[in-house]
Amino acid sequence: MSEQLGLGSQDCLDTLESRTGCGAEAFVLTEPSRERLLVCRQPLVRRSTDSGKAPTCGEMAEVVRDCPDLIAFLRGSAP
Questions:
Q1: pTM to 2 decimals?
Q2: CA distance 55 to 65
Q3: Residue 51 has what pLDDT?
């Protein structure tokens, strides 16, 4: 990736909201679905839900491998 998001900072949230449109009041999660999002985030919160703890490289690789639709969404691309 060309951009590294700051862990535990507002920068990460602002960047993701900007890319995905999640910050808009009228935002509705359609694709990927809420259920898909919850399944895909499991490897990222398996060890901890503390936003200050980064997932391992293996956990990130699992999400990238198993959830390309979520990765595209987070990058701001159409799913």
A1: 0.61
A2: 15
A3: 74
**Domain count of the chain?**
1
Q: Give kind and range of the element (H or E) at residue 4.
A: none
Percent of the chain with pLDDT over 70: 82
Residue 66 pLDDT more than 90? yes
Residue 2's identity, in one-letter code, is S
Nearest CA-CA partner of 54 in 2, 14, 4: 4
Residues spanned by the domain of 49: 34-79
Q: How far is CA 2 from the centre of its chain?
A: 16
Pair 40, 67: CB distance under 8 Å? yes
pLDDT at 79 over 60: no
Q: Are 60 and 53 in contact (CB under 8 A)?
A: no
Q: CA angle 52-16-20, nearest 5°?
A: 150
In a domain? residue 51: yes
